């Protein structure tokens, strides 16, 4: 783009009023000439932003008052306040490319002018182009930006950021819900940005179903979800997800056995989801057990190239089927514990790298002799690795089901790890709905609690 467009300016200035790091980018790098003369109202708003004291965040109210009689400015501020709050990385990447292009055009004009002015200045023109080109290539808005968060100096700006985010409901987006009421209530909304969570279950109890339940729940709310299937294949994962949202039996989904009335309802639902831009992406690695966290990282980058943003939630089914990329750890069974510990840490590292992404995964237990005792629950000590596996995770749960509970479609969740959140009672019951692919039957669970059944 040769000039900054009104839509981009609305989204960019919206972030300037919300995020200290974007405000600082604006002060340091955005020039009046980047904005077309026809959009002079945005030049005035930029002036108001730049003139805001560095220790504060700019305010739309203050700038609006400065230009109270300018109808165009008032209309632009209204559009800014109504603009979508987009991911910081998207705005910064676009602005960075724009500034590089602008600097290259200016450099090109200077070099041409210098080269053609006098023959004895051609070497000077060549030198100028060589030096400035390197600087333009290496230019980055992210480099050094907000390198340190100062505990005292940044307190008031941080306070205002959070107040604005909370008032607008934007802080809720820092969470991706589990889709299980007790967990979402205790955490204030779900998995925090940059965090990882893990389910521990016996084989065949429903690890994959639990992961898909959260994935589908988050998708319905508009979060970008990437599901990585390492067992069973892409088609099976797709059919299981289809079973959840169509509320059909798995055999009907597999056979495509729907009546015309059911298809009409399904197609209306698809239209609503597509209009809202909601989608869930499924990927399966071709070779069983050979996917490494390096492959997972590359896949996340591919997702960003396709979707335009990094996923809010990545589901990896499952941890014990993921490799590290280190041949010694991955191939020697004597190193299984170290392999799983390394994968767990790599998951956390990837979340940190692509913040505010989150990862949800699962692993199965080793032998647990008391699994059929309703008074016993599995803990981190029962993982196939060992208790150190949970170290990088912020949330760790086990799901416990006896034979009688399985018949009654009920199970017990044990909260093994809940970093930063207080838990008075770490064990609670839920109703399940496996007949229709649902790990959690919300209606029947809430009815169970309302009736004060034995919990």
Structural class: alpha/beta
So what's the CATH class of the largest domain? Alpha Beta
Number of helices: 18
Identify low-pLDDT runs: none
Keywords:
single chain, 455 residues, alpha/beta, Rossmann fold, eight-stranded mixed beta sheet, two-stranded antiparallel sheet, 18 helices, 10 strands, elongated
Would you mind describing this structure in some detail?
The chain folds into two domains: 6-138; 170-450, P-loop containing nucleotide triphosphate hydrolases (Rossmann fold), CATH 3.40.50.300. The strands form two sheets. Strands 5-4-6-7-3-8-9-10 form an eight-stranded mixed beta sheet, with helices on both faces. The chain has helices at residues 6-16, 20-29, 40-50, 60-66, 71-82, 88-117, 122-138, 155-168, 181-187, 207-220, 234-246, 250-255, 260-275, 293-307, 327-331, 336-353, 403-407, 442-450; strands spanning 175-176, 191-192, 196-201, 225-229, 280-284, 313-317, 358-364, 395-400, 410-418, 427-431. Helix content is 48%, strand content 11%. It contains 18 helices and ten strands. A hairpin with an 8-residue loop joins β9 and β10. By secondary structure, it is of the alpha/beta class.
How would you briefly describe this protein structure?
It is built from 18 helices and 10 strands. The chain has 455 residues and is α/β, with parallel strands linked by helices.
């Amino acid at each position: 783009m040769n000039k900054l467009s009104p839509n981009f300016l609305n989204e960019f200035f919206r972030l300037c009023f919300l995020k200290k790091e974007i405000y600082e980018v604006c002060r340091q790098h955005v020039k009046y000439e980047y904005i077309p003369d026809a959009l002079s109202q945005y030049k005035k708003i930029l002036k108001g932003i730049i003139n805001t004291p560095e220790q504060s965040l700019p305010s739309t109210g203050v700038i609006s008052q400065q230009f109270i009689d300018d109808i165009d400015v008032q209309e632009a501020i209204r559009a800014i306040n109504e603009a979508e709050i987009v991911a910081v990385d998207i705005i910064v990447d676009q602005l960075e490319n724009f500034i590089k292009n602008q600097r290259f055009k200016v450099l090109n004009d200077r070099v041409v002018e210098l080269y053609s002015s006098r023959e004895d200045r051609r070497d000077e023109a060549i030198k100028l182009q060589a030096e400035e080109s390197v600087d333009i290539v290496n230019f980055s808005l992210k480099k050094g930006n907000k390198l340190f968060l100062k505990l005292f100096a940044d307190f008031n700006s941080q306070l205002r950021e959070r107040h604005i985010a909370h008032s607008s409901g934007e802080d809720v987006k820092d969470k991706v819900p589990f889709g299980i009421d007790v967990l979402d209530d205790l955490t204030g909304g779900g998995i925090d940005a940059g965090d990882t969570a893990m389910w521990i279950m016996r084989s065949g109890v429903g690890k994959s179903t639990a992961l898909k339940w959260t994935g589908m729940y988050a998708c319905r709310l508009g979060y970008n979800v990437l599901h990585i299937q390492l067992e069973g294949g892409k088609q099976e994962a797709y059919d299981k997800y289809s079973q959840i949202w169509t509320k059909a039996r798995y055999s009907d989904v597999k056979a495509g056995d729907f009546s015309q009335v059911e298809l009409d309802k399904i197609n209306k639902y698809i239209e609503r989801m597509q209009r809202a831009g909601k989608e869930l992406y499924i990927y399966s690695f071709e070779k069983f057990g050979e996917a490494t966290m390096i492959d997972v990282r590359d896949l996340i980058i591919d997702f960003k190239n396709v979707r335009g943003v990094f996923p809010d939630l990545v589901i990896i089914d499952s941890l014990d089927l993921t490799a590290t990329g280190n041949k010694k750890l991955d191939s020697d069974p004597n190193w299984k514990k170290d392999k799983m510990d390394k994968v767990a840490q790599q998951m956390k590292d990837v979340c940190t790298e692509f913040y505010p992404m989150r990862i949800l995964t699962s692993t199965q237990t080793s032998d647990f002799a008391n699994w059929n005792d309703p008074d016993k629950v599995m803990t981190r000590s029962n993982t196939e690795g060992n208790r150190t596996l949970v170290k990088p995770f912020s949330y760790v749960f086990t799901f416990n089901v006896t034979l009688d509970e399985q018949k009654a479609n009920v199970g017990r969740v044990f909260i093994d790890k809940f970093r930063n959140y207080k838990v008075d009672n770490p064990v609670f019951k839920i109703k399940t709905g496996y007949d229709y692919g649902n790990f959690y039957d919300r209606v029947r669970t809430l009815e169970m609690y309302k009736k004060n059944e034995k919990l």
